[in-house]
Design a protein that fits this description.
about 220 residues; alpha/beta; Histidine-containing Protein, Chain: A; 3 domains; four-stranded mixed beta sheet
Amino acid sequence: MINDKLLHQNVLDALQWEPSVRDEEIGIAVKDGVVTLSGFVDSYAEKRTAERLVEKVSGVKAIAEELKVKLPTGSHRSDTDVAHAVVNALRWNVQVPDERLTTKVENGWVTLEGDVDWYFQHDAAERAVRYLTGVRGVTNRIRIRPAKASPFEVTNKIKDALRRNAELDAERITVEAHEGHVTLGGTVRSYAERRDAEHAAWSAPGVTAVEDRITVSV
């Protein structure tokens, strides 16, 4: 069992170890395994990196991410420039069906809309614009509209994927599927394992939404 003081130090060490994250302006608070990140970062990409680093720290049960993007001098771009950059980034990403997507940019905040067949396309669209200069944040409203699959097929494919993952104890995770909506339950040993289980669910054919009710037991 990792106490909050040790967890705080481990989170700090993880952030300090990553050279792409300027940890000097990031505040860390830990209570009962819940980590709160606050303060400022230089880009949306740095914000996402910080969150991903904390997810992998042993003992983290949940993350409250309150980081704000404060663009440094030289990184400010007009919304028009950002919009053009976003359109080009989506067009040049082979995993993104850009012709089915629309983009809105307001004060550096990018909103993505449209529909795709798979969650990996939904995720690829966000990743394509995350690292662009001038982006303060991304709201991903892209809908998943896959071909229909039976609840039995969806459930079995997700359970098979969980069993193939050496890091997961598949027997401790429950899966329910209904009309494309998947609900995950049970317990895992880390926040990172919870994310792995969620990713496995999204990778099954016919899935349009995933409700993650898995709890982290450390």
